[in-house]
């Protein structure tokens, strides 16, 4: 029983870290955008992290809800569209 809890905590920690990395990258992008600064580097960082998380979720390596994946993809599409006008 305790082993299952430990494994669950490790899994939750991994998911939390992945999502936190994506959120931090998105926040950095939005900060620069709000200050009318060049956002290319932050956009690329977010795109890279978001794609990695989506790939892991689709491969079953990372358990995300459908809504979490949808929101990440939505932000990803918006940023990609801004990078490629």
Structural class: mainly alpha
Shape field: elongated
Task: Classify the oligomer.
Answer: single chain
Given the structure, what is the number of helices?
3
Let me know the average pLDDT: 84
User: What's the story with the biggest beta sheet?
Assistant: none
Secondary structure layout:
Elements: H1 2-34, H2 40-58, H3 66-83
Helix pairs in contact: 1-2, 2-3
Descriptive overview:
82% of the residues lie in helices and 0% in strands. By secondary structure, it is mainly α. It has one domain (2-83). The mean pLDDT is 84.
Compose a concise summary of this entry.
The protein is mainly α and about 80 residues long.
Short descriptors:
85 residues; mainly alpha; 0% strand
């Amino acid at each position: 029983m305790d082993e299952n809890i430990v494994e669950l905590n490790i899994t939750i920690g991994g998911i939390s870290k992945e999502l936190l990395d994506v959120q931090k990258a998105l926040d950095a992008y939005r900060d620069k955008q709000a200050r009318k600064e060049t956002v290319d580097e932050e956009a690329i960082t977010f795109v890279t992290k978001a794609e990695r998380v989506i790939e892991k979720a689709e491969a079953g390596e990372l358990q995300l809800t459908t809504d979490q994946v949808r929101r990440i993809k939505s932000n990803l599409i918006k940023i990609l569209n801004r990078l490629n006008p």
